[in-house]
Amino acid sequence: MVFPATDEIYEAMKAHELNSGIEAREESSVLHVGINTEKTSFEALYISRSERNDVAMRIYNLIKFPPDKLEQMLDAVNAANLRFRFLKFTVDEQNDSVDAAYDFTIAGEGLGESAYELLMRAAGIIDDCYPVFMDVLKS
After folding, report:
1. Beta carbons of 31 and 45 less than 8 angstroms apart
2. Which of 7, 31, 61, 65 could form a disulfide linkage to 69, CB 3.0–4.6 angstroms apart?
3. 13, exposed or middle or buried, with CB in 10 Å at 0-12, 13-18, 19+?
4. C-alpha to C-alpha distance for 98 and 116, rounded to whole angstroms
């Protein structure tokens, strides 16, 4: 099933000429959109699980790191989370990766444009943090 929020976000991404696609799942719908920034590229997922405008934005596997860098990566992620408030970075210890997340609920119209704005803000934050995460890999 494709939920209304997913359709609205899809239309906004299309209006901004971003390639995206919808995946209809049994209990959710997911919009996939790829982004190229100055320093990296990533895929953002917008996940809707109801008819309401609840949306979770997830970016998985932003950085993959070797297990011996876990402590250093945790420090870098914690520092990034203290510096920025719109995007939350997490460390997935099972996949040895840095992920990013944002959850928002918006009533009424404007969800698609808000999702686009969030994606642009996330891209800027990731560009700021990416070199720090990469420094951990090089150390």
Report:
1. yes
2. 65
3. buried
4. 22
